Amino acid sequence: MMTTDSAGEIPGGASTGDDAANEGATDRLIGPPRRRPVVVVTGMSGAGLSTALKCLEDLGYEAVDNLPMNMVDALVEQGDLASRPVAITVDARTRHFSSDALSAHIARLAARPDLAVRLVFLECADEILQRRYTETRRRHPLAVDRPVADGILRERTLLAALKDRADVTIDTSLLSIHDLRRILAGHFKLSAEPTLHVFVTSFSFRQGVPREADLVFDVRFLTNPHYDPRLRPMTGLDEPVAARVAEDPDYEDFIRHLTSLLRPLLPRYNQEGKSYLTIAIGCTGGRHRSVFVAETLARWLGGQGYKVGLTHRDLDRSSRTGSHAQEWRPPEPAGT
């Protein structure tokens, strides 16, 4: 994730002779003026580029889809947009698209002292991309008269260098539109508020580690309620499951050590300008242990004064939205 820029500059008037003598000291006090955000979105066709651009537009960016790179400078300098943050998508649909040319152009823009340029790459698993194209009956832009799989392979090769140099990579394979919006807001919100936002998610290792996670903790060592026929249909949102996990002799020490680890880390992230942090808690199925621990951790983080988001990525939709999900929450971790 990118480091947040400093807050906006303090406007000043004409200087007297004495003021001019102190000009250097004043400059050091107010810091450099805030640079104008420019977000370039690229990535795999079908990974959600247009959706991401719409999300950035909702955040307050001037959004332009499929813009040729030779027009970016003109857009940035356009009179009525000269002070607005800009978000653009540039991808394989663009005429004469070149990964090297795009990288070079971004580097030139990033060298400007008045711009804060960030490159976002949207990734997605091949099988999910193929399914999306099949369901929508659309042709891949690089495989007009060939199978979709050929176009995906060709595009991966074409974009490999951009993916390597991206400031932020987001894998949309298992993300809903709401999740994508949340992640983009965490990275690119325009508010200068310095508070660290922490997002906690549970997940199943069977479905893969969340690509957006900054910190990942494995709780598969805890007692697994899945092997109790009575508890198997329940989730970590249910008190009987939570009680079974909490009875594990190593549970309390784990929570104590986890919170002790995070307590000094989070303020340092905040001091370094990190505005958004994702903590992922995983177990085998993503329904019992990880759900309970994620709920417990989110409650502790809220008690520490952080703004916290929480989701359970691989919990069944029926369980996630069922009435029992709001009936009980785990207690505050003891001794933290």
Strand proportion: 15-25%
Low-confidence stretches: 1-32, 317-331
Described by the principal axes of the CA atoms, the overall outline is globular
Computed structural class:
alpha/beta
Radius of gyration from the CA trace?
23 Å
| Tally of helical runs | 12
Helix content: 25-40%
Mean pLDDT: 80
How many β-strand runs? 9
Give the spatial strand order of the biggest sheet. Answer: 2-3-1-4-5
Distance between the termini: 28 Å
The biggest beta sheet is recorded as: 5 strands, parallel
The arrangement of helices and strands along the chain is: HHEHEHEHEHHEHEEHHEHEH
Topology, please?
Blueprint: H1 17-21, H2 23-30, E1 36-43, H3 49-58, E2 62-64, H4 72-77, E3 86-89, H5 99-110, E4 115-123, H6 126-136, H7 148-165, E5 168-171, H8 177-188, E6 197-204, E7 215-218, H9 239-246, H10 251-271, E8 276-283, H11 289-303, E9 307-312, H12 317-321
Parallel strand pairs: 1-3, 1-4, 2-3, 4-5, 6-8, 6-9, 7-8
Explain what the structure shows.
The protein is 39% helix and 16% strand. It is built from twelve helices and nine strands. The protein has 336 residues and is α/β, with parallel strands linked by helices. The strands form two sheets. It has a five-stranded parallel β-sheet with strand order 2-3-1-4-5, sandwiched between helices. Strands 7-8-6-9 form a four-stranded parallel β-sheet, covered by helices on one side. Helix 3 packs across helix 8. The N terminus is likely disordered.
